[in-house]
Specification:
The chain is α+β, with helices and mostly antiparallel strands. It contains 13 helices and 40 strands. Among the domains are: 35-128; 422-679, Rossmann fold (3-Layer(aba) Sandwich), CATH 3.40.50. Strands 33-34-36-35-37-38-39-40 form an 8-stranded mixed β-sheet, with helices on both faces. The model is unreliable at 1-19 (pLDDT under 50).
């Protein structure tokens, strides 16, 4: 059955038997209150699935995580919550025998490992360590715990770091002294601690052993690393992990390597991928322990290079790429029970698809390609996938190894969705830069009537190596604009992922020309193909790179637009280089350092075109954004005010590059939509 049809039928079935409420267009409050399902894990026999659900505590202005279980062996079974919301539980994992569920939970400001019987029973705390457990994995026999904790660089025990933290609380001086970068990363100032790997008996019979002693780097990586970056060998005697050695080059290096270390800590870690100066990550041993699969990039200093799937013979040290002819960038891997197939998700033609890759031949086969798969697991011949699309927030679906027998097994937001009216997206294509085919989508406003024209929200995605896929985005959700009466146009310009590596690479050193040409031609194509778009009544919006493009458009393509909205954009390319944290990104995108190639940073610098700005603009920027610091937004707002251009500045003192708190998200949407309505008809 077609997935969309199946989903619609299931939604109707869920709604049947209840009184139909009057429908309303989707809005920002609906978005903020949606339960967010994630991180599914199957029990070893595939009969149970454990997962995390983030609900919203509106009054507390935060999300609340809980761990849930669903018995897949019983038709019609309902999910049950395992943990009290007060514990903020996450990261579920089954014991090897499937009888116990482990997870992280926070009690009395300490995050530790907890467990609960799968058959039912109260959760109990397993570890009582002096530091928080950041993430973990169990050994294959279920007797050992492998975990990461934040350690001071000169400590080798958890107790040492605890003592230093306690001593710091007694010091009244607040100065922080640094001798190298990073001094801050993403949204956090460095306190000289690093994520380090430890192993200990699960029963606590002996103290944790530091496995990464001498490793000057974070395991897993910051800010978004996970336990997919380390693994046990099948016999439990070896641990594999990836790490970037920091030294003084961390901000301009993407040279992650995969290491091995004895699980008892009896020897120092050994670098297995030293020959590759680009990114090696996500180690996964074969079932027989003879081969190590991992992902590898080829271009040093480039975070958006293609991840190829590698197989390393652990006896000889010989490595081969399994999928050299597959023009997609793989994500973390999961191995089939027979060891013959690797599963991964990739950005793929406007979707985030689940693929199966034959280990022997490297042949990729689509397993689930409709919408966006944001998490999955495999047990036996069963797959569980966390899937979403434009009109459905994430829920869990089961399917077999070939992608057949698809069935939705959770319906967390069914009651909320029952009275919401969504718009329907239509994909289109056109010839963009270099004559290449470029894709985008449009949405009419909810309730659009034939023959009428509507104001347009023209969305520019960030990254820039990102995309607008078929997803239910919890921040930049096009349905919030369609629900407010705007048509939506979104273009996957050159630089977007999911259309081949050459397409992604095309944006580097071309921020202001090739993507702009795609946006201009995409806008013209959309106006030609969709008559309900009012080309004379439109505003353009973007964040991050999309925000950069808004500032750039303000100077070089401002004629069609009634207003602009810029969220956390790059205003001054020159100062951006010296104020951001991840310098490898700036150096790759601009062809080198600013002091060696200043002309590259000025070529597409929005600052240099302020004299041509004319369109009213709302600028949004947050204080804890260290990727694109708040002074970029303040500079742009100063330019607008000094030019006498109608403008507003929305500042969040407690947000980072994203807007995460529920009430802040609603305020963001209301402010943005009020701005659009002010300048359109």
């Amino acid at each position: 059955m077609n997935l969309r049809l199946a989903v619609c039928m299931l939604a109707l079935a869920a709604a049947s038997g209840t009184a139909m409420a009057a429908q309303h267009p989707f809005n920002a409050h609906d978005l903020a209150m949606m339960d967010r399902v994630s991180d599914p894990h199957l029990s070893p026999n595939g009969f149970e699935v454990a997962f995390t659900v983030r609900s919203t505590d509106w009054d507390a202005n935060k999300g609340v995580n809980s761990v849930w279980l669903l018995d897949l062996s019983k038709q019609g079974a309902q999910p049950r919550r395992v943990t009290d919301p007060e514990l903020g539980a996450n990261s579920p994992a089954f014991s090897p025998d499937g009888k116990t569920l482990y997870f992280l939970a926070t009690d009395k400001d300490s995050t530790q490992l907890w467990s609960a019987p799968v058959a039912g029973g109260a959760p109990v705390q397993v570890t009582h360590l002096p530091l928080d457990v950041d993430n973990f994995k169990l050994s294959p026999d279920g007797k050992s715990l492998l975990f990461s904790a934040q350690m001071f660089e000169d400590c080798t025990t958890l107790e040492c770091t605890r003592e230093k933290l306690d001593a710091q609380k007694k010091v009244k001086a607040t100065g922080r002294l640094y001798h190298r970068l990073f001094v801050r990363h993403w949204d956090t100032w460095s306190d000289h601690r690093r994520g380090q790997l430890f192993v200990m008996p699960l029963d606590g019979s002996s103290r944790p052993v530091l496995l990464t002693k001498g490793i000057d780097g974070d395991v897993p990586s910051k800010p978004d690393g996970s336990n997919a970056e380390y693994a046990f060998s099948p016999d439990g005697k070896t641990v594999y992990f990836d790490v970037r050695i920091a030294g003084k080059t961390e901000p301009w290096s993407t040279n992650f390597d995969v290491y091995s270390v004895p699980a008892d800590g009896s020897a120092a870690p050994k670098n297995l991928t030293a020959a590759n100066k680009a990114w090696d990550a996500f180690p996964l041993p074969s079932r027989d322990g003879k081969t190590l699969y991992y992902l590898a990039m080829k271009v040093p200093g480039f975070e958006a290079d293609r991840f190829g799937i590698m197989a390393l013979d652990l006896a000889t040290g010989a490595a081969r790429e399994i999928d050299p002819d597959w023009d997609r960038s793989a994500g973390p891997l999961v191995l089939s029970a027979d060891g013959k197939t690797l599963y991964t998700t990739v950005a793929d033609d406007g979707n985030v698809a689940l693929y199966a890759i034959d280990v022997a031949s490297g042949k990729p086969t689509k397993v689930l390609s409709d919408g966006s798969v944001l998490g999955f697991d495999v047990a036996g011949d069963k797959i569980i996938a966390a899937r979403q699309d434009f009109t459905h927030p994430t829920d869990l679906y089961t399917l077999d190894a070939q992608g057949a027998d698809l069935a939705q097994v959770t319906h967390f937001n069914a009651a909320r969705l029952a009275d919401i009216e969504f718009s329907k997206a239509t994909w289109f294509s056109f010839k963009g830069w270099n004559g290449d085919i470029v894709h985008g989508y449009v949405m009419p406003p909810v309730g659009a009537k034939p023959g009428q024209k509507y104001p347009v929200a023209f969305l520019v995605h960030g990254g820039p190596q990102g995309a607008w896929p078929d997803e239910f985005h919890y921040r930049w959700n096009p349905q919030t604009y369609a629900g407010a009466g705007f048509a939506v146009v979104a273009i996957n310009f050159h630089g977007s992922v999911g259309y081949g590596q050459a397409f992604t690479d095309a944006i580097s050193q071309h921020w202001g020309d090739r993507p702009l040409e795609d946006l201009q031609k995409g806008w013209a194509a959309a106006l030609q193909q969709f008559p309900y778009l009012d080309g004379n009544d439109a505003c353009a919006l973007g964040a991050s790179y999309g925000g950069y493009m808004i500032y750039w458009m303000a100077g070089v393509w401002n004629q069609p637009w009634k207003c602009f909205v810029d969220h956390d954009g790059v205003f001054d390319a020159r100062m951006m280089y010296y104020a951001t944290e991840e310098l490898w990104f700036e150096e790759r995108e601009n062809g080198g350092t600013q002091f060696e190639h200043p002309e590259n940073y000025e070529k597409f610098n929005p600052l240099n075109h302020v004299k041509d700005w004319r369109v009213p603009m709302l600028v949004v920027h947050s204080d804890h954004d260290y990727r694109i610091p708040v002074t970029q937004g303040l500079g742009a707002f100063t330019a607008l005010q000094r030019r006498g251009i109608p403008s507003e500045f929305l500042n969040f003192p407690d947000e980072n590059h994203l807007v995460l708190k529920p009430q802040n998200s609603v305020q963001w949407h209301e402010t943005v939509l009020d701005w659009l309505k002010k300048w359109t008809k």
